[in-house]
């Protein structure tokens, strides 16, 4: 009698969503093998909250955490509005950002959603509080691994380092120690892309990133000579994002 091989259903649901005005990517991840379908969302935008709520509801997900990679300067996070519209959702951001949130994340922490998790890796340099969220290791975790790099590492680029506590040398060290140290086939998903790209890998960026593939001194020279304009949204976005977006300040933990 011939044996029948049962294919294990992939546990991870993954969606990459786009907001065109700020060219921001929002990421939705859920454990579909878990009866509650627990989920997390990374870097939502206020302008697309209705879309994000709809997809969570349509897929029958239980959104646990809305996680920001850093205090954004080019858009207002949708975190606060999502908390209003989906009961029980908690906001999360790095402790190093000094922003207010329900959950303040430290280096090495694991944020679980069902049997899956995201590991917090500190990647300061674009801002002082930048982190990268990396999917877990193990047979029950996604393969290849996935990293949500915020603005620390963009596809063939990186975030600027001239405001919000930015530091080119620190960014270079962050990316090389915390992102480029991941397996070469790790999929890298940035917070923004302006040229239509959606994903890259550690191996690609090591070889082809026009800034971060250089040595540290050359990288610092490049960053010092970018000549970028003052971000048009920064004066509105940063204060709002320091409390994780538009929401009731009383509900935000000051711990």
Describe this entry's structure for a reader.
The chain has 255 residues and is of the alpha/beta class. It has one domain: 4-Layer Sandwich (Metallo-beta-lactamase, Chain A). Helix content is 21%, strand content 24%. It contains 6 helices and 12 strands. The strands form 2 sheets. Strands 1-2-3-4-5-6 form a 6-stranded mixed β-sheet. The protein has a 6-stranded mixed β-sheet with strand order 7-8-9-10-11-12. Helix 3 (168-179) crosses helix 5. The longest helix is centred in the last third of the chain and has 12 residues, at 168-179. It is globular and about 50 Å long. It starts with 11 loop residues before the first strand and ends in a 14-residue tail after the last helix. Residues 1-8 and 249-255 have low confidence and may be disordered.
Characterize this entry briefly.
This protein is of the alpha/beta class and 255 residues long.
- How many domains? The number is 1
* CATH class placement: Alpha Beta
H/E order of the elements? Answer: EEEHEHEEEEEEHEEHHH
CATH architecture: 4-Layer Sandwich
Tell me how many strands there are.
Answer: 12
The order of strands across the largest sheet is 1-2-3-4-5-6
Number of helices: 6
CATH homologous superfamily placement: Ribonuclease Z/Hydroxyacylglutathione hydrolase-like
Distance between the termini: 63 Å
β-strand percent reads 15-25%
For the residues shown, what is the average pLDDT?
93
- CATH domain fold name: Metallo-beta-lactamase, Chain A
């Amino acid at each position: 009698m011939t044996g029948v091989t049962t294919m294990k259903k992939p546990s991870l649901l993954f969606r990459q969503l786009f907001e065109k005005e700020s060219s921001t990517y929002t990421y939705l991840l859920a454990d579909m093998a878990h009866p509650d379908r627990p989920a997390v969302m990374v870097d939502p935008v206020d302008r697309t909250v209705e879309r994000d709520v709809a997809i969570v509801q349509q897929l029958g997900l239980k959104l646990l955490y809305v996680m920001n990679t850093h205090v954004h300067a080019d858009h207002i996070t949708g975190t606060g509005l999502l908390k209003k519209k989906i009961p029980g959702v908690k906001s999360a951001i790095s402790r190093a950002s000094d922003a207010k949130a329900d959950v303040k994340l430290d280096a090495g922490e694991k944020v679980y959603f069902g049997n899956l998790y995201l590991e917090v890796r500190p990647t300061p340099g674009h801002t002082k509080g930048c982190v990268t969220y990396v999917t877990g290791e193990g047979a029950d975790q996604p393969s290849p691994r996935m990293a949500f790099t915020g603005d620390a590492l963009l596809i063939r680029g990186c975030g600027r380092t001239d405001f919000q506590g930015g530091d080119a040398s620190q960014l270079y060290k962050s990316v090389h120690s915390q992102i480029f140290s991941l397996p070469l086939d790790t999929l890298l998903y940035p917070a923004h892309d302006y040229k239509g790209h959606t994903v890259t890998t550690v191996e690609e960026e090591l070889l082809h990133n026009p800034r971060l593939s250089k040595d540290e001194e050359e990288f610092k020279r490049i960053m010092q000579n970018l000549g970028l304009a003052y971000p048009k949204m920064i004066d509105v976005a940063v204060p709002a994002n320091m409390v994780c977006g538009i929401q009731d300040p009383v509900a935000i933990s000051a711990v």
